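Replying to the earlier thread about multi-chain prediction with a worked example.

Input:
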Amino acid sequence: MWKEQNNQLVRTFEFGDFSEAFAFMTRVAILAEKHNHHPEWTNVYNKLEIKLSTHDAGNVITEKDRKLAKAIDELL
Amino acid sequence: MWKEQNNQLVRTFEFGDFSEAFAFMTRVAILAEKHNHHPEWTNVYNKLEIKLSTHDAGNVITEKDRKLAKAIDELL
Amino acid sequence: MWKEQNNQLVRTFEFGDFSEAFAFMTRVAILAEKHNHHPEWTNVYNKLEIKLSTHDAGNVITEKDRKLAKAIDELL
Amino acid sequence: MWKEQNNQLVRTFEFGDFSEAFAFMTRVAILAEKHNHHPEWTNVYNKLEIKLSTHDAGNVITEKDRKLAKAIDELL
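Result:
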């Protein structure tokens, strides 16, 4: 489900409506803080795009990104 | 599912974990503001109790409570 | 503070950390649902960019965007 | 600010409105998951009461509660 694009792990999500999308974002926000690793993410109504890369490693994909991606997947 | 207790509509919810419970609370918070009617609610980990009554009407159950309860049920 | 760019109202925000940024996003999410008008928004850690335009009007800036922008400003 | 009552650390908070109170709750939710320690908390409109105790230690106040209380205070 996650694609590698421009040195980022990218996944898009679609929900029933905005409320459902934002509730999912709240869960991802909690995960991000637990992992101390934060996404670049964009939401429009029921759509969400999450991009993961590791700034401190020079904006490439690292194990931190793969772990957070896996944790996000486990929410679904 | 909602019980009438002490002039309040009361319902309890149980989720898989805290994150799931709080995501649901976020959706209820959005509904509460849309309805301009707010619950008394208590959360502990994966458990949530919501109590609805109308302060302005003298702390009794009114149509505002029944409408919010219905909207909350529709989230599930 | 809001700029008009490509038929969108655009404003960027910077907070102390991710938690503060996401708390603000929660307040904007509640406003968006109350206004029944939703932003395109992107967050990275403590930074947030909000873009407003009206899809139903052909992706141009309308009164709906100006009202939501004003309500967002009043949060600050 | 925190009081010891019935083997719990208890503090009440008052905000400008519901939106502000719920934004603060979102930040506390994130902290709770980071600490892997969760409050018993009750919200009504702009008011919030947080009660902390450690279930695994027999519902008494422990260092986990004092640490979470301190982290919550640092949000303010």
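DSSP finds two helices and four strands in chain A.

Feel free to reuse this layout for your own posts.
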